[in-house]
Amino acid sequence: MKRIDDDAFYEYIRKYDTDSEVHLVGAVDYHLLRDNKPYAGVRSHREALLRVFEYLAKERTENKENAGSLFGDGLADRMQPLSYDIHKARSSPVAPEVFFYCPDIVSTDYYGNRRYDAGWEPDNSGTAVPYWYALMEPVYGKRNGPEDFRKVNGALFPNGTEELDIYEWTTDWSDYFDDGHEWYGACCWSVYDKTQDRYAVMLVSATD
User: Fold this and answer.
1) What's the rounded Cα separation, in Å, for the pair 203 and 185?
2) I need a labelling partner for 138 at 20 to 30 A (CA). Which of 14, 37, 124, 192 fits?
């Protein structure tokens, strides 16, 4: 299984974050992959997670080396390698209609805070948040609306959502999620699109 570095979806979401090194919409970091082996259910999803975290670990190591070259060993020594153990990750299947649920905005107050017609409210406990909330209500950066949620997912899954296998994963197996555990929330989802034979891994971990 290999990461996809060049995809039309990445070009589409550049309007939401112009940093070419990441593929963010709101607080959601997207990683696309393709496998030359037949789909094997949750085992394939776990391999997709492994490939993404191998990439993230390599990226963090390179950042540490670059920091040492530019700013000296003092800063580099404070940068820790990424820790993860994919075997400890536990998965739960998620129905597409649940995963892609998106509420409407009911009202916006004087300070710009939105109220949604959803049966869920953020509690700042550092646990998982819904996909719609991570995309629409990030800690920093551009907030997005329901129409953005629909457009982004339409670009990601142009053939619809009926042929998707979706898993939500626990987040206690990597320090990647430590920031999100502080209060905003931490999430890890993997989606296999049978119509495109493509995987999408979506990660959320944010704090102030």
Assistant:
1) 11
2) 192
DSSP secondary structure code for residue 207 in this structure: -
Domain boundaries, the chain: 2-205
Take residue 132 and report the two structure tokens written for it: 């719609």
Distance CA 184, CA 47 (A): 27
CA–CA distances in Å: residue 103 to residues 15, 114, 130, 140? 23, 11, 11, 21
pLDDT tens-digit series, residues 174-189: 999 999 999 999 999 9
pLDDT digits 0-9 by tens, 90-109: 999 999 999 999 999 999 99
Beta partners for 30?
202
List of long-range contacts for 148-154, beta carbons under 8 Å, 24+ apart: 148/16, 148/25, 149/102, 150/102, 152/12, 152/13, 152/16, 152/25, 153/100
Query: What three-state secondary structure class fits 126?
Result: coil
